[in-house]
């Protein structure tokens, strides 16, 4: 819906798909898209290749980190980490560092970032058995990491406005088809942050919730030492270091 709305307003939009089949679906769903780049975000190698493909298209005004997984059992990636951390947290880090710096970065988060663990001790699940994995807590934790990233990039890259949004309980395939929040309101918030014309889109480091406006983040997200520590952890794991 957001891609279609941006295209309708005259913007050039590039979509992302996990594989060729999903890319075909994306082209059919949004025929006005400029291009579709392909890469499985659970794979570090494919995520790096995706960034390279994006850079070949030029420099973007805005990059929206919207891809995520939520429900399901513990899954380990080819790189040996939980898929939910790879896709929801590591991939946005890698892409934000490797893609030519846009004017705006938008991180799609969740109010559940308050309900996961805020500890950075074992984010890759090397110390805990998979049997302790709980999907709701794991999802919240992955979004907590994403919020730390948003805050870190807002500090480290003052020329790029980094914001985050919670789209609400909208009826989507990933979420709950019976969601009761307004899809239109969610799209409007996406547009505001992506286009960069409204005042809210200039508030780097801010967190917005559909229908509620700007909200304070979970207190632990403001910890600058943890923001820096997470950047260090991800840089060591991925081999991708901020410039």
Automatic annotation (TrEMBL):
Family the UniProt entry places it in: Belongs to the short-chain dehydrogenases/reductases (SDR) family.
Keyword NADP: no
UniProt protein name: Daunorubicin C-13 ketoreductase
Record GO terms (molecular function): oxidoreductase activity
UniProt cross-references to InterPro entries, sorted A to Z: NAD(P)-bd_dom_sf, SDR_fam
Entry annotated with the keyword Iron: no
Keywords, sorted A to Z: Oxidoreductase
Residues passing through the membrane, by range: none
A Pfam family that the UniProt record links to this protein: adh_short_C2
């Amino acid at each position: 819906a957001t891609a279609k709305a941006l295209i309708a307003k005259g913007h050039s939009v590039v979509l992302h798909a996990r594989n060729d089949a999903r890319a075909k679906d994306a082209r059919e769903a949004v025929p006005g898209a400029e291009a579709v780049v392909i890469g499985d975000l659970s794979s570090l190698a494919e995520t790096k290749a995706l960034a390279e493909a994006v850079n070949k298209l030029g420099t973007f005004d805005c990059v929206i980190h919207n891809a995520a997984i939520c429900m399901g059992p513990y899954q380990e990636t080819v790189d040996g980490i939980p898929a939910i951390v790879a896709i929801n947290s590591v991939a946005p880090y890698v892409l934000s560092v490797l893609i030519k710096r846009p004017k705006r970065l938008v991180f799609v988060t969740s109010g559940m970032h308050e309900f996961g663990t805020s500890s950075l001790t074992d984010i890759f699940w090397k110390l805990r058995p998979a049997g302790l994995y709980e999907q709701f807590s794991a999802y919240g934790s992955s979004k907590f990491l994403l919020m730390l990233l948003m805050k870190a990039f807002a500090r480290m890259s003052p020329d790029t406005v980094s914001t985050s949004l919670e789209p609400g309980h909208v009826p989507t395939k990933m979420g709950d088809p019976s969601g009761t929040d307004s899809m239109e309101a969610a799209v409007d918030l996406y547009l505001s942050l992506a286009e960069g014309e409204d005042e809210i889109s200039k508030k780097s480091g801010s967190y917005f919730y559909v229908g509620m406006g700007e909200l304070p983040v979970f207190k632990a997200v403001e910890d600058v030492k943890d923001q820096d520590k997470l950047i260090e952890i991800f840089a060591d794991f991925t081999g991708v270091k901020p410039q």
